[in-house]
Design brief:
642 residues, Heat Shock Protein 90, 4 domains, Rossmann fold, six-stranded mixed beta sheet, 35% helix, single chain, Ribosomal Protein S5, domain 2, alpha+beta
Amino acid sequence: MKKFKTESKKLLDLMINSIYTNKEIFLRELISNASDAVDKLYFKSLTDTDVKLSKDELAIHVSFDKDARTVTVSDSGIGMTKDELEKNLGTIAHSGSLEFKTENDKAQGDDVDIIGQFGVGFYSAFMVAKEVRVVSRAFGSDEAWAWVSDGVEGYTIEEAERTTNGTDIILTLKDDTDEEKYDTYLSEWGLKSLIKKYSNYVRYPITMDCDKTREKPKPEDAGDDYKPEFEHYTECETINSMVPIWKRSKSDVTDEEYNEFYKSNFHDFADPARTIKVHAEGALTYDALLFIPSRAPFDLYSKDYKKGLALYSSNVLIMDKCEELLPDCFNFVRGVVDSADLQLNISRETLQHNSQLRAIANKLEKKIKSELEKMRDNHRDDYEKFFEQFGRGLKFGIYQSYGMQKGLLGDLLLFYSAKQQKMVTFEEYTAAMPTDQKAIYYAAGDSTDRLAKLPVVNSVLDRGYDVLLCTQDVDEFTFQTMQTWGEGESAKELKNVASGDLGLETEDEKKAAEDATKENEGLFGAMKEALGDSVTKVAVSTKLATAEAAPACITAEGPVSLEMEKILSQMPDMGEAPKSDRVLEINAAHPVFATLKAAQEAGDAEKVKTYASLLYNQALLVEGMPLEDPVAFANAVASLMK
């Protein structure tokens, strides 16, 4: 037995037990090596006129023997001589593929695509095999040689027989344990599923002898009671698709084919809303096929949902979901990215240079936004359906990034316009603004119907300004994170109509409210005392200024709005949620105000206290806020009915 040409056992243990995290990729590695061997022979046929070879002769065959517990990967490639077996397999981490790729880099072209680069993929076989036998016959040679090892100390090389050029890798699988079930790889279904998962797009046919069933011909003398008989037979079947759909010209693929690919690969029963095809060449060449789903998966907003695109290198699956290729705000996008230029780590399970991923991710981010903008501008109904499914995530992307993503996502947001009574963008809202309007006004709550009836909303609408009615729990947080929309001098502040100071009143209205507040300082002081810490102050409202308007309303000063307080209080494990600084605003034009003044002037402190509580709780109900003491409120209302 010959020893491995390294320091050896420790390095081999590292190769087998530490580099790879998933045992099932052994078949991917062996098929990739087989594909490289076939590529080398095909390249030789292109550069040597004496080599007569048809591409139809090139293939990879996978088989298994359940009784012998073997899995075999055979190829019709270039093969190896005795010296090459010694050099490539006897020296760990020596890559003949990398050597070939380096020597022939400029001459390969698109017809040859060498996958292996590190020379360690072969040793992944020892994760599942207790012995590996490699039988190889080099192209143009009459001799075949067998390399055999148990992956522990060394190997043997001896003469063997093989009728044609190429290589057979025969794995004798380990016995099952309680933790590992190696018998999985001794089944037609098990091997086919691995081929389809990892090697479906290897450019050469990967064949298997598959068991099938067919009905026997009906005998001529069969009677009326004849029952059909079936027989089993074996047929060689090509398992892989070879040409990936993302590398085919868009003009050669129908929408139905794209839809079927999406549904079968990403487990959705509905067609995607949009399909995005990307082909990039330059410093980094890659193909991408992206899909915008038409509906959100059930777990999209759960902590278990994992975003990412399937990442391929030279048509071989590297990662099921590469998270770095998508920003969180576009986590709903599904698809694949394929690039031969990626610098993979030694196990080909992760990447060495994240800058390459970032470059691709930046391009895809812009492409996704561009496609969404086209849908928004040209197919508004489709976009509104999309936004209904995924708009929450776009809004959350702004909040989660502390406003850094508002330039990317702000243009994509939609909100219901109280004035126009339809969904609008910020741009559409500002385009319809009166020239004297200085801000974008919004109200946040649980339904557009309830928001449209709020006194503070109607007070803004009465001045000719539109109000965006926001009904998702993330809306208030998104607006407060954004603060403004637009660029430079045209930027507009985002203002909640339930905030303390909207700045909409005229100087005369403002002065009148201040004078009325000062004039009734004693009344408001008594009301504030009756309400205690529930409010920070009581004052005359500049929002409610007519007898037809509500008698009072609740607004909030400071960073915590009424809607934020309500949402935070409903969050599990929140503890004591922050409170808004509530202000009770009184409509000085309403008849109730005259009643309050009369009670104060008559010294009826109990009536002032009761009415203050009633107005405050009534205003809370209008805002959709919970009452602090519903029983007391109900009793107070009942007392008025006596």
